[in-house]
Design a protein that fits this description.
- This protein is α/β, with parallel strands linked by helices.
- Helices cover 40% and strands 24% of the residues.
- The strands form two sheets. It has a six-stranded mixed sheet with strand order 6-7-8-3-9-10, sandwiched between helices. Strands 2-1-4-5 form a four-stranded antiparallel sheet, with helices on one face.
- A hairpin with a 2-residue loop joins strand 4 (56-61) and strand 5.
- The chain is globular, with a radius of gyration of 18 Å.
Length: 251
């Protein structure tokens, strides 16, 4: 497995954000890490990036321990989130040049121009990031994620703030790039169209624990306990959200 997570747990005081989570992601797979707000998705991603340390459990990426081979691992992966802020006074190109230096990207300006064109924002190259819309910032983050041609991509809500047409375009770009480069992708998303279109498997989290793993259809059948031909992932979220609301009211 390119990603191997075993018994991962993260607590903040008395609160357990991630509770004994184990999963693997094979080379070239696109796997969705899904669940309602507060399920532990982003905390899990942050532990995979080494931004926060697990309370217990282990993480192995590319067959090596993240704890012992952090620099080697981080050079081979990349990450983006719409909630990641870039220096607003710098232009799009200036921001991407800084990241290109961090990742030792050769012919950085050529690579940056290629990615800006691919994600449809070449005309924004010299515009300060502070003057971009949220959707434009999302696309800049996606350009940043592909700068070093990573073997592993971690995406946190990659189509957030995009309109339906923009989200569709980004999904197709990501699928094309993944197909050509065989990049392994772990993606969190509340957009079930993203998940059903892109992911071969999903890991459904709730209250920090794994509820189900498998194909989107397998997971929805297990969570909903129904044997329909093609139950929708949206129904899982609605069912879980209602259960959480009922629990909150009853408490």
């Amino acid at each position: 497995m390119l990603v191997a997570v075993e018994h991962l747990t993260k607590t903040f005081g008395k609160f357990t954000a991630v509770d004994d989570v184990s999963f693997g992601v094979g080379e070239g797979e696109i796997v969705g890490l899904v669940g309602p707000n507060g399920a532990g998705k982003t905390t899990t991603i942050h532990m995979l990036l080494g931004l926060i340390s697990p309370t217990s459990g282990s993480i192995r990426l590319f067959g090596k321990s993240l704890e012992n081979y952090r620099e080697y691992i981080l050079q081979r992966l990349n990450f983006t989130s719409p909630y990641m802020a870039m220096p607003g006074r710098l232009t799009v190109c200036e921001n991407l040049k800084i990241f290109a230096q961090i990742y030792n990207v050769r012919e950085a300006l050529t690579k940056i121009q290629e990615l800006l064109e691919r994600f449809g924002i070449a005309h924004l190259k010299n515009k300060p990031v502070a003057r971009l819309s949220s959707g434009e910032c999302t696309r800049v983050g996606l350009c940043k994620a592909f700068l070093n041609d990573p073997d592993l991509l971690l995406f946190d809500e990659p189509t957030a703030y995009l309109d339906p047409q923009g989200a569709w375009q980004v999904r197709e770009i990501l699928l094309d790039l993944q197909l050509r480069c065989a990049t392994t992708i772990l993606i969190t998303s509340h957009n079930m169209r993203d998940v059903q279109r892109m992911c071969s498997r999903i890991i459904f989290l709730n209250h920090g624990r794994v509820m189900a793993m498998g194909t989107p259809i397998e997971v929805t059948r297990k969570v909903l306990n129904e044997d329909r031909a093609a139950p929708a992932l949206d129904e899982v979220f609605i069912r879980i959200a209602r259960q959480q609301l009922d629990e909150t009211i009853s408490n």
